C-alpha cells in the first residue's frame, strides 16, 4: 500500500441484515471489493449485538491523507450484499 503520508487504522463495525447472513461471506466480499492500493484489513473480530446477532468489526489500514477520509470505505462496505449498515467507530493514527 504505497503512500507518501502517514497511515491510520479505521475501526469499522458492520451490521448484517440478519442472523442468517454469514459474517465470513461478508468479510470475503469486503476483501474482494476494497481496492488493495488504498485499504488493508489487518484484524477482524465479532461483537454481540442482541438475540444472538453479531456484528463484524474490521480494522482497516489506510492512508491518512485519503481524499474524503473514511466516506469511500463506508460506502464500499454498505454496498455489499447482506450488510444492513456499516459505520466507522474510530480512526487512529499509526506511529512507529
What is this structure, in a nutshell?
With 96 residues, the chain is an alpha+beta fold. It has helices at residues 23-33, 71-78; strands at 7-16, 40-50, 53-63, 83-93. The longest helix has 11 residues, at 23-33.
Description of the structure:
It is built from 2 helices and 4 strands. With 96 residues, it is of the alpha+beta class. It has a single domain, classed as Ribosomal protein S6/Translation elongation factor EF1B (Alpha-Beta Plaits, 2-Layer Sandwich), CATH 3.30.70. A hairpin with a 2-residue loop joins strand 2 and strand 3 (53-63). The model has no long low-confidence stretch (mean pLDDT 92).
Walk me through the topology.
Blueprint: E1 7-16, H1 23-33, E2 40-50, E3 53-63, H2 71-78, E4 83-93
Binned, the helix content reads 10-25%
Distance between the termini: 16 Å
Number of helices: 2
CATH homologous superfamily - what is it?
Ribosomal protein S6/Translation elongation factor EF1B
The CATH architecture comes to 2-Layer Sandwich
Structure keywords:
single chain, 96 residues, alpha+beta, Alpha-Beta Plaits, four-stranded antiparallel sheet
Amino acid at each position: 500500500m504505497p503512500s507518501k503520508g502517514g497511515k491510520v487504522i479505521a475501526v469499522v463495525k458492520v451490521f448484517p441484515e440478519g442472523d442468517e447472513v454469514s459474517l465470513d461471506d461478508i468479510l470475503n466480499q469486503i476483501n474482494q471489493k476494497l481496492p488493495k492500493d488504498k485499504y488493508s484489513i489487518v484484524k477482524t473480530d465479532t461483537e454481540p449485538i442482541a438475540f444472538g446477532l453479531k456484528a463484524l468489526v474490521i480494522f482497516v489500514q489506510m492512508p491518512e491523507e485519503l481524499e474524503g477520509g473514511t466516506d469511500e470505505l463506508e460506502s464500499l462496505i454498505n454496498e455489499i450484499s447482506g450488510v444492513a449498515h456499516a459505520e466507522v467507530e474510530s480512526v487512529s493514527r499509526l506511529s512507529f
